[in-house]
């Protein structure tokens, strides 16, 4: 039996709660599964569920196509990147990334597109763009590469 983390009551049951996250004046809302204390009403949403919600919000920000500092920062953090780590992945100075996210410089459109692609691919369970970005840091040279063509589309 699970006890409430607030009141210690024994009657915690599955339920739902609405979570809202506002970025750049747009409110993103979702009804999420939660544990709800029947005595005091406290709700608890599991961390992986919150992370999934944040990733969905980040994907919507990418689709909206507004490369604002707040949207860029939210998308980066939803992917779990620290600033210096993401700057290195993009091949830009960490100060440049900081200036984008703080509105000192206009967010680079190409970087915004790459970041949005990373978000959308992660939701789809893919990592194509991430693999290509990492390959730029450790290029592989091979004397010969065989490719397989399944069908020609013209």
How would you describe this protein?
- The protein has a domain at 47-137: 434 Repressor (Amino-terminal Domain), CATH 1.10.260.
- Helices cover 45% and strands 17% of the residues.
- It has helices at residues 47-64, 69-78, 83-90, 94-101, 109-123, 128-137, and strands at residues 12-23, 26-37, 43-44.
- The protein has a 3-stranded antiparallel β-sheet with strand order 1-2-3, with helices on both faces.
Please outline the helices and strands.
Blueprint: E1 12-23, E2 26-37, E3 43-44, H1 47-64, H2 69-78, H3 83-90, H4 94-101, H5 109-123, H6 128-137
Antiparallel strand pairs: 1-2, 2-3
Instruction: Estimate the strand proportion.
Output: 15-25%
In helices, the fraction of residues equals 40-55%
Gyration radius, in Å: 21 Å
Determine and state the CATH class of the domain at 47-137: Mainly Alpha
Strand order of the largest sheet: 1-2-3
Query: Would you identify the CATH architecture of the domain at 47-137?
Result: Orthogonal Bundle
The CATH topology of the domain at 47-137 turns out to be 434 Repressor (Amino-terminal Domain)
What general form does the structure show?
Answer: extended
- Tally of helical runs: 6
Cα end-to-end separation: 62 Å
Q: Which residue ranges are poorly predicted, with pLDDT under 50 across at least 5 consecutive positions? A: none
The major beta sheet can be summarized as: 3 strands, antiparallel
Alpha-beta classification: alpha+beta
If you average the pLDDT, what whole number results?
A: 94
Count all strands and give the number: 3
SSE string: EEEHHHHHH
